[in-house]
Amino acid sequence: MTRIAAVRSAFPAHRYAQADIARAFAELAQSTAGARSCDPGGNDGAGTGVLDARQLELLMRLFTNSGVSARHTVLPLSEYARLRVAGATANDRYIEEATALGERALRAALAASGTAPGDLDLLIVTSVTGVAVPSLDAALIPRLGLRADIKRLPVFGLGCVAGAAGLARLHDYLAGWPQHTAALLTVELCSLCWPHTSVTTADMVASALFGDGAAAVVGQGTELAHARTDLAGGSRTGRATPRIVATRSEVFPDSAEALGWRLAPDGGFRIVLTTGLADVVERRLGASVTGFLADHGLTVDDIGAWICHPGGPKVLDAAQRALKLPDAALALSRRSLAEAGNMSSVSVLHILELIADEGTVTPGSFGLMIGLGPGVSAELVLLRC
Question: Hey, what domains does the chain have and what are their CATH numbers?
Fold first, then answer.
């Protein structure tokens, strides 16, 4: 089993209350010339002009009901209006800021795990909020002092599910190379994707939910983990560290249009989001999870720690109903959403860090990470402390 040696999050310096972000986004939408009006019932609107009173009321209601109390943004709120003229400008900032934030997260995880940068054998980097060629991992090699022959796997397109999927692929690699060390880095700067033209209801929902952040995990293969434990006489923190037992991937049928990105004429990414997303989760997730657990002789009642992607209050409610969980089971997922917003691929790793920091999980107990993203897809990672 893969040992998770450390997980660390990193956030931009700018943090705002949800009410402040709501006002700033409303001003941005109001000042966008030629914006289409928003259709409350769908992804796109029709007509032209700035937001009217009804649309502004909808915007504020969406922000209030998002389950988010505060979020980090990579730029000061006052700077986002300057990005409206060209997607290339936003993407240039993405490359600069994502590299710096990713370096902070990965450097912290390496230090916490006691891993020298030169000992890292594989680096997986996931991000869906910008495009970088060369990829971010290549930029991090000289900044962190990684080996020139490190294996690299940049991942784009998995969206919110990429944190759990990246952890699963890290586990797959270490199963074949049990003497190696691998790292997963997730970086998402969602605020750089705020729309500056043709604001739709889906754009409003996304702007109310998504936050900026990064997180990194260092994992050790079975042989290396055993050697280090024997040498040190235990973990660096003095308490049990989780291990990955098994993983499962699933794409739910006939749900591809429920969630995703599209490239807008202005060059920026625009959210594709339908009201049916929570319904897909409620219909499909229960069978996926119970089937996966049954393959390992477990039931929902055997899971002591739940790490569910905080896609939003409705998605979390749907997951809770599908699995028939008590409120306490998803408390940390809701806490992550409240404190940092939906950070796409970063969120499940942030929740994993919260669990590790609390130190309340019983040694030997099981945990389940549930990633959800475009497809609609689910990635399940079975953990044991």
Answer: 2-231 (3.40.47.10), 240-384 (3.40.47.10)
